[in-house]
Q: What sequence folds into this?
């Protein structure tokens, strides 16, 4: 894992002092709310429905147990004993006071964390594959690039007042778990025939009002040029991105309006204009960072793990959890443990301070002191010996953290919605709870197989409904909440935007509608065909009939 | 059954801690919607707006706005769900917010 | 509006002309960029120092030709959240301009350091904030991760510090005498 050196420490300390001064000036009236808002947002502080909300970055989703314990401490001391893990590898606290915020930032700085640029019209927390460094399909760990970009983007003087927010995601594996094609910039690692690695640079993906899939502007950019090239992209965007209409201000609109070819030409021209400078410092910095991400020392274990196999025979509950929540590790005898934060009827992504501490303890004991926060709002122990999986499961069960629904219908992504968010037009969480109760029977969920249900409480699409296999969007119709259903979205390497199926539903009708869709799928699927592929083959018609024909 | 009056309530967030507050008859900001002024005519809403503007300047509150509400039997509730959630707390965590702190007023969410 | 330069409020020594104002005999004169372009043939012979006022939709490459003859470039911030001028400033510095680069418009103390880092050297600021506030805001962060920024005494680039045996010299905070 990356560790701060004296410079990194000093940087977050100074930033905290700066925010303390800004907050004091706001409280004294020296700054107006309009002046203070961008400053607090660039430190992750929102004003939400009930109070201030603080969004803390978990860069590239990686946490040590010490950091997770500090998150629990903050939840207990300054919030209401819980936190909400988001789709972009952040944690949000919902009941924060402005007058406490600088102290919270100081507590984060103690454990090498911060809330820098988790909001505002600047470069946001850089996200990656939550299985980075562990996944069997990975070419190379993307986190060193994540850390390089975290540093480079932090308080970038040129790019702190962009037309709109800017999100970067990085994957080092061909199976994209970081949704890079729906980010402002997506980076994907490739290895060529000569064995060299380079980065595919994609630009202009995004969700919100106008969902778009990113276009590729470079196929194979040498790693040491990443910073300089991204700087050229950012400069083109900062200069030419629209500022007249905030709904048209994201880079995807610029790419779309001037066309991918013209956009690419502008970037290349800007890139060619950069001064004669070597990239040796960036290269050395990347090497320095990469050393921190050297894999932990794994034991030489056999691929066959008798204790693990026996445990599955003895404990059917464990066998189910192992089947659904464990993923292939690159090293024999090891596994990736996916802890579901989606218990039946629960709030997706929420964890209590107590649960955080338990997961920290398990990481310390069984997972080389490492945890991950995933894009689908779950927690991961990335490096676990298969023979330890039973002990972990046994510890998770009483904490309500052992739900065996990873990747299944109950593993729902949901934004906080109108229960917390001041932008929301409808509630998301109750819809998620109703669906998870509807599919409470895990036998049913397993029979249905992998499906991604994503719920957003407004058009801003924080719940990623556009790229859910089944997407649900909550809207307001004459003061009443109602919900639109989209089908066929995907955020992976074969990304697609879902299509609206038909007229919307009242809140209490949604779970039933989802059930009809999935029943139709089970009836019509070919052997082994997952929901998304069945939908792509069948099209919307049979699902429309199932939902609307009888009415 | 008592009569229902419809009007508008002035709300904001208290600057220092973000708490949702309402403008009361005495000109103070209070956590309880039941103590809010329900403005029934334009003159009254204008007075609330003027007061709110002053208190923003005085750094007491931030983001003030009016929302539609009704008084039933002397107790006030918001008409729209969003504002009800603000005056009570999250519908999915009845143990949090004003509903849990005893400042929610008379119209709390019921257990599901 | 006070003019902030080298950490002090100073008197502006420049005359700022509009589109129609007659050209004085000499002295320091700044002229809107569109007029500068149109009247360049006669302006090139101006005996005093010339400056120009850009808009934040002007392209740095269009200005490049004139830069060697200018001692002042002014870039506006129509709103403090409109960050285009940060990029134009950097482009102009990358083109080799060493003269005074002035920020004008809606500028807040909390942005002062970013502006200095991208190459601004003077600032037309609001009376609202006393000098101490600007001085305080100008030194809140002593470190930057990015390379190639303008740095003042006491400021360091993290990556250069980590990897270069001798850190590059502090870039000139005060402008050089202009070449034109």
A:
């Amino acid at each position: 894992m990356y560790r701060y050196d004296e410079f990194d420490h000093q940087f977050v300390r100074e930033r905290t002092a700066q925010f303390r001064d800004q907050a004091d000036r706001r409280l004294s009236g020296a700054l107006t709310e309009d002046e203070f808002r961008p400053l607090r947002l660039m430190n992750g502080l929102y004003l939400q429905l009930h109070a201030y909300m603080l969004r803390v970055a978990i860069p590239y989703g990686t946490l040590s147990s010490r950091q997770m314990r500090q998150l629990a401490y903050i939840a207990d001391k300054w919030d209401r004993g819980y936190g909400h893990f988001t789709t972009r590898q952040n944690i949000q606290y919902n009941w924060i006071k402005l007058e406490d915020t600088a102290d919270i930032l100081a507590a984060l700085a103690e454990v090498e964390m911060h809330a820098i640029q988790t909001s505002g019209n600047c470069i946001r927390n850089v996200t990656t594959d939550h299985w980075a460094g562990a996944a069997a399909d990975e070419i190379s760990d993307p986190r060193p690039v994540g850390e390089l970009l975290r540093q480079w983007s932090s308080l970038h003087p040129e790019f702190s007042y962009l037309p709109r927010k800017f999100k970067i995601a990085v994957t080092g594996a061909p199976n994209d778990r970081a949704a890079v094609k729906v980010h402002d910039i997506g980076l994907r690692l490739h290895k060529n025939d000569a064995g060299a690695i380079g980065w595919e640079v994609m630009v202009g993906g995004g969700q919100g009002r106008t969902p778009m899939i990113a276009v590729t502007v470079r196929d194979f950019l040498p790693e040491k040029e990443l910073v300089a090239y991204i700087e050229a992209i950012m400069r083109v965007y900062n200069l030419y991105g629209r500022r007249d209409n905030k709904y048209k201000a994201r880079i995807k609109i610029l790419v779309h309006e001037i066309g991918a070819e013209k956009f690419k030409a502008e970037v290349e021209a800007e890139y060619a204009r950069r001064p004669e400078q070597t990239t040796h410092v960036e290269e050395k910095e990347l090497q320095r960072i990469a050393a921190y991400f050297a894999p932990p020392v794994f034991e030489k274990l056999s691929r066959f793990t008798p204790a693990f196999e026996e445990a599955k025979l003895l404990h059917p509950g464990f066998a189910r959890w192992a089947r659904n929540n464990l993923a292939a590790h690159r090293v024999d005898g090891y596994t990736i443990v996916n802890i579901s934060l989606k218990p039946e009827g629960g709030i997706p992504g929420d964890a209590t301070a107590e649960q955080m501490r338990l997961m920290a303890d398990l990481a310390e004991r069984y997972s080389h002191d490492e945890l991950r926060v995933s894009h689908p709002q779950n927690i991961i122990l990335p490096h676990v010996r298969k023979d330890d999986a039973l002990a972990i499961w046994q510890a998770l069960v009483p904490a309500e953290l052992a739900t065996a629904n990873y990747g299944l219908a109950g593993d729902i992504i949901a934004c906080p919605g109108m229960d917390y968010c001041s932008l929301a037009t409808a509630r998301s969480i109750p819809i998620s709870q109703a669906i998870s109760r509807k599919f409470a029977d895990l036998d049913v969920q397993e029979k249905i197989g992998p499906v991604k249900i994503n719920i957003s409480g407004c058009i801003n699409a924080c719940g990623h409904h556009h790229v859910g296999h089944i997407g649900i969007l909550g809207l307001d119709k004459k003061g009443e909440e109602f919900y639109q259903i989209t089908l066929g979205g995907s955020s992976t390497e074969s990304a697609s935007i879902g299509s609206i199926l038909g007229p919307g539903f009242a809140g209490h009708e949604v779970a039933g509608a989802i059930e009809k869709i999935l029943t139709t799928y089970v009836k019509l699927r070919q052997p082994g065909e997952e929901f998304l592929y069945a939908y792509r083959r069948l099209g919307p018609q049979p699902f429309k009939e199932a939902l609307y024909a009888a009415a | 059954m008592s009569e229902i009056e419809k009007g508008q309530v002035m709300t904001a967030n208290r600057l220092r801690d973000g708490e949702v507050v309402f403008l009361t008859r005495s000109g103070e900001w209070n956590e309880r919607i039941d103590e809010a002024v329900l403005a029934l005519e334009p003159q009254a809403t204008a007075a609330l707006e003027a007061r709110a503007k002053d208190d923003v300047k005085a750094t007491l509150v931030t983001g003030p706005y009016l929302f539609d509400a009704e008084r039933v039997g002397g107790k006030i509730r918001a008409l729209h769900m969003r504002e009800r959630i603000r005056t009570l707390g999250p519908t999915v965590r009845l143990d949090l917010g004003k509903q849990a702190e005893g400042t929610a007023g008379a119209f709390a969410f019921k257990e599901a | 509006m006070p003019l902030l330069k080298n950490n002090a409020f100073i008197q502006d020594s420049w005359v700022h002309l509009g589109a129609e104002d007659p050209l004085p005999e000499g002295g320091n004169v700044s002229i809107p960029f569109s007029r500068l372009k149109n009247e360049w043939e006669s302006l090139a012979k101006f005996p005093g120092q010339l400056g120009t006022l850009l808009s934040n939709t002007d392209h740095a490459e269009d200005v490049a030709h004139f830069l060697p003859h200018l001692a002042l470039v002014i870039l506006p911030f129509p709103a403090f959240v409109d960050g285009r001028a940060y990029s134009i400033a950097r482009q102009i510095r990358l083109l080799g301009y060493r003269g005074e680069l002035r920020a004008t418009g809606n500028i807040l103390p909390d942005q002062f350091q970013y502006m200095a880092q991208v190459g601004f050297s003077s600032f037309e600021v609001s009376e609202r904030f006393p000098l101490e506030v600007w001085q305080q805001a100008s030194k809140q962060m002593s470190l930057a991760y990015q390379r190639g920024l303008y740095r003042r005494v006491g400021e360091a680039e993290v990556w250069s510090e980590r990897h270069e045996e001798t850190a590059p010299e502090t870039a000139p905070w005060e402008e050089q005498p202009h070449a034109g």
User: Anything to note?
Assistant: The two ends of chain A are 56 Å apart (CA to CA). The interface with chain B takes residues 26-29, 33, 47-52, 80, 95-99, 347, 418-420, 424, 427, 429-430, 433, 479, 481 of chain A (CB under 8 Å). The domain at 413-549 of chain A is CATH 3.30.413.10 (Sulfite Reductase Hemoprotein; domain 1).
